[in-house]
Design a protein that fits this description.
This is Isochorismatase. The chain is α/β, with parallel strands linked by helices. It is built from six helices and six strands, in the order βααββαβαβαβα. A six-stranded parallel β-sheet has the order 3-2-1-4-5-6, sandwiched between helices.
Length: 189
């Protein structure tokens, strides 16, 4: 992570691109487009941080009061769950950091902030599934923590296209620059 020459304060956060989550996205060009963003970042020397949701066996971190995580089936998003694996199209390289979170935001229950601080990373480029989940929660928390933000609108996906549109066109622009994978990748050349 340290020593990248271009945009040394920037990191691409690729969030919740896990097999069982991505399988719910019906858009066939989503993963190829996200792969383009990951490759552009790698080629520009921008760290790619992979954020995943993960729990211990038995989900001791997930309260029954939590509507999202308390309702998970036994074994979901544990080390033994093949659906918890990062999608092979976006597989991390050996030198790329994988952040495991315990809630919706990439910051919740993870060491993300420590990794960012240690790497001198203050500009976060966000992509992932779902726009109304991890992207929204991470964007809001990162803005409150004074990170500079860019959201790759077409690098995000949501089961509800209207919610995705409202977030990327009306909500995110209040706290982040919103652009496309192609436009962002073009700025790195």
């Amino acid at each position: 992570m340290k020593g990248s020459t271009v945009m040394s304060d920037t990191a691409l956060l690729v969030m919740d691109i896990q097999k069982s989550i991505v399988d719910r996205i019906a858009t066939p060009d989503y993963l190829p487009r996200l792969t383009q963003a990951v490759e552009a970042a790698r080629n520009a020397g921008i760290p790619v941080l992979h954020v995943v949701v993960g729990f211990r066996s038995g989900h001791p971190e997930a309260s029954g009061r939590n509507k999202t995580f308390g309702a998970l089936p036994e074994g979901a998003f544990t080390l033994k769950d093949p659906g918890a694996a990062i999608h092979p199209d976006i597989a991390p390289r050996p030198d790329e950091v994988v952040i495991t979170k315990k809630r919706i935001s990439a910051f919740a229950g993870s060491d993300l902030e420590m990794v960012l601080r240690s790497g001198g990373l203050s500009h976060l480029v966000l992509a992932g599934v779902a726009t109304s989940g991890v992207v929204l929660s991470t964007c809001r928390q990162a803005a409150d923590l004074d990170y500079r933000l860019t959201v790759l609108a077409d690098g995000c996906a949501d089961a509800d296209e209207e919610v995705h549109r409202v977030l990327t066109e009306k909500v995110f622009p209040r706290q982040a620059e919103v652009t496309t994978v192609e436009e962002w990748s073009g700025t790195l050349s």
